[in-house]
Design a protein that fits this description.
- This protein has 145 residues and is of the alpha/beta class.
- It has a single domain, classed as Diaminopimelate Epimerase, Chain A, domain 1 (Roll), CATH 3.10.310.
- It is 43% helix and 15% strand.
- Strand 2 and strand 3 form a beta hairpin.
């Protein structure tokens, strides 16, 4: 099973979704993809990846990670303390449902793009872009294992 299941065009669509979502917010969104999840619970793996990618180091603790183990058909979405404290209680679960609906049809790019857009809307609401001082703290590239 390939580490990267996406074509270059599909990767660019996901990266474009991240850039679009981050335009109006100081929040940071990352996507991590691997074939297999080494944990029974994909949330635990997402927590590990979140730390490996240094996502906890954002100034306002407003990083969001979309984790996908495509061969195992597992995924998770997690946010740092800053964003978790502000989003509605059902936000992550309803976003997972959105992704799940796309993923069931084999539309990983569409699911990730829609989920990223949805996370960006929340980030924009609670963490608006800070103007000229706002820098992109984390790369927008997809990370792979």
């Amino acid at each position: 099973m390939p580490t990267n299941p996406f074509t270059p065009d599909e990767q660019q669509q996901i990266i474009d979704a991240i850039r679009q979502a981050e335009q109006a917010t100081s929040g940071e969104i990352r996507v991590h993809v691997e074939p297999n999840c080494p944990h029974a619970d994909p949330i635990q793996r997402a927590i590990d990846v979140f730390a490996q990618l240094g996502m906890h180091q954002t100034k306002e603790q407003n990083g969001v990670l979309f984790y996908l183990a495509h061969a195992d058909r597992k995924f998770a979405i997690i946010g740092d303390k800053g964003i978790n404290a502000r989003v509605p209680a059902d936000f992550w679960e309803s976003t997972k449902d959105l992704l799940r609906n796309h993923f069931r049809q084999g539309d990983y790019v569409g699911g990730l793009s829609r989920g990223i857009e949805r996370a960006g809307q929340q980030l924009k609401q609670y963490f608006p872009h800070a103007g000229a001082d706002d820098i992109n703290e984390l790369t927008d590239d997809i990370s792979f294992d």
